[in-house]
Write a structure and sequence with these properties.
The complex is a heterodimer of chains A (229) and B (286). Chain A is of the alpha/beta class and 229 residues long. Chain A has two domains: 87 residues; 132 residues, Nucleic acid-binding proteins (OB fold (Dihydrolipoamide Acetyltransferase, E2P)). Chain A is 38% helix and 21% strand. In chain A, strands 1-2-3-5-4 form a five-stranded mixed barrel. Chain B has 286 residues and is mainly α. Classes of the chains: A alpha/beta (229), B mainly alpha (286). Chains A and B meet through helix 1, helix 2 and helix 3 of A and helix 1, helix 6, helix 9, helix 10 and helix 12 of B.
């Protein structure tokens, strides 16, 4: 009975943890949007299985003869670790500290990065255009994107990068993409602040494309912080 | 530390639904699959290998989800089917085929990925099934003992406890694998692998990166597509063929389910097929 009580209790606890992180929205900080219904079903399934097993163990009401062992203790520790960590630590969205601009400079793009309509392009799709298109061909096109601010301490006061992570499944596969933005008050913005950037594509001093911002408006962090490829 | 916790929880949240689904299918549908495999047509080893290599098309399961069923079938003596299914299903399934196509829009890459995976599955099934010793380790030996609770007659009334026993037996190894993979993601520099030069070194580096990153096969193509412009067909194939079959997250679970010699052979064969196939594809591309 003890063994089944332990498994039933662990299943219920894991189901509750997943449901909790879904309900408070923090699960979206670590997994893709389409995972949310999958995780709800998983949480419900674990709770159901846990309740069933607990009830079955109590109904049987006899001991299974299991004695504490080192292997059993290790198993309990490994099963308990994510439960404790998941309860104590609230998953947070990836932020500017997770950006690797050196890696970003060498990035390729999935086929979904291509979008014909400039007005509908997100940061990922604009980064693709900035990387692959002739700057003169996209100069003047309107830009309207949301992302978080990324500035290095030595950046000029009128320059920032607006960034967003692309997540295919979970943040283990996340890749950050940024756009250079020219904005007169960039120095007043702080890293990780979410903003809406409106403007047009221009050409920088070295011939590289840059967003010439007409407006940079602070906004609330979106419910979904990531772009899905 | 918070980065480690973030990625560790992400990997667990990503894998847990598929592990649970795999165990549910193994416990609930396993007996039916065993009966199907007992039919005359599938007793032939060649037919069993072919069926196992293609079963993912009707049972689309990633590498976390297909192991419980493969393990059950191996325990039941259906070695050829189980091994071919174990290796092939994470890639030979409609979800992975579609996502690989969406990421690359390259029929050549999709076909080569499928062909190399099938080749690895067939090779593993043929070689590992010839091992004389048991290749599958029994789960939870205590509950299989006569008189123990786990020995209760199989049926719907016992599904829930059996599902949870098997689930947590594997979940603890998933925790170990996810912790290792998260630590690598946080503390290792991926750029070192991407900067490898030369056909063979770059393929080996990408295979090792795939092993370390432990990314689910259903989305790994998006990751490879975004890793860098210097990556050619061969290194991309090395990542996409080897990563879903052998990775840091999966090794602890493999070792809990299958014997050491079987796991070593599986790893070596998959590595050889992925490396040789990727190298040939890369050199041919030149």
């Amino acid at each position: 009975m003890v063994r089944r009580l332990a498994f039933g209790g662990a299943a219920a606890a894991l189901g509750l943890l997943i449901a909790w992180r879904l309900a408070d929205g923090s699960a979206r900080n670590i997994v893709q949007g389409w995972y949310v219904p999958v995780l709800w079903v998983t949480a419900a399934g674990l709770l159901l299985l846990g309740a069933w097993t607990l009830a079955d163990a109590l109904r049987r009401g006899r001991r299974d003869g299991a004695r504490p062992t080192l292997a059993g203790g290790l198993a309990a520790a490994f099963i308990g670790l994510p439960l404790l960590l998941g309860a104590a630590y609230t998953p947070r969205p990836l932020a500017s500290t997770n950006l690797d601009l050196a890696a970003t400079a060498a990035r390729q793009f999935g086929a979904s990065a291509s979008a014909a309509d400039p007005a509908r392009r997100n940061i990922y799709q604009w980064a693709y255009e900035f990387e692959t298109a002739d700057p003169a061909a996209i100069a003047g096109q309107p830009v309207d994107v949301i992302g978080f601010v990324f500035r290095k301490p030595d950046d000029p006061p009128d320059r920032l990068r607006v960034a967003r992570f692309v997540v295919a499944c979970c943040i283990a596969d996340a890749q950050g993409f940024t756009l250079p933005v020219a904005w007169k008050d960039a120095g007043a913005l702080t890293n990780d602040q979410w903003v809406r950037v409106e403007g047009r594509v221009g050409i920088g001093p070295d011939g590289e494309p840059v967003v010439l911002a007409a407006a940079v408006t602070p906004i609330e962090a979106p419910q979904n912080p990531y772009i899905y490829p | 530390m918070s980065d480690f916790a973030n990625i560790f929880l992400a990997l667990l949240f990503e894998a847990t639904p598929f592990l649970l689904a795999g165990v549910v299918i193994s416990v609930v549908a396993g007996p039916l699959v065993e009966r199907v495999l007992a039919t005359a047509a599938l007793r032939n080893p060649a037919a069993a290998v072919a069926a196992g290599a293609s079963a993912g098309l009707v049972l689309p399961m990633c590498d976390c989800g297909n192991r419980p069923l493969a393990h059950r079938l191996a325990l039941a003596g259906r070695r050829e089917f189980a091994l071919a299914f174990l290796v092939a299903a994470p890639v030979i399934n409609p979800i992975v085929i579609v996502t690989t196509w969406l990421a690359f829009r390259s029929a050549e890459l999709v076909i080569l990925r499928l062909l190399l995976t099938v080749l690895a599955a067939v090779a593993v099934a043929i070689v590992v099934s010839r091992l004389r010793r048991d290749i599958a380790l029994p789960l939870d030996a205590a509950s299989d003992a006569p008189g123990a609770e786990g020995h209760a007659p199989a049926g719907p009334s016992t599904w829930a406890p059996r599902i949870l026993e098997e689930f947590f037996e594997l979940f603890q190894f998933l925790v170990v694998g996810a912790a290792l993979a998260a630590a690598i993601q946080v503390f290792a520099d991926q750029e070192e692998f991407l900067s490898a030069r030369g056909v063979f070194l770059s393929i080996a580096a990408m295979m090792f990166l795939a092993f370390l990153l432990s990314i689910c096969s259903s989305v790994d193509a998006f990751v490879v597509a975004g890793l860098g412009g210097a990556i050619g067909l061969g290194p991309a194939l090395g990542f996409l063929v080897f990563g879903p079959l052998v990775n840091l997250k999966s090794i602890p679970m493999y070792l809990r389910l299958f014997s050491g010699p079987a796991v070593v052979l599986l790893v070596v064969i998959c590595a050889q097929v992925a490396f040789a196939g990727a190298a040939i594809a890369e050199l041919r591309a030149w």
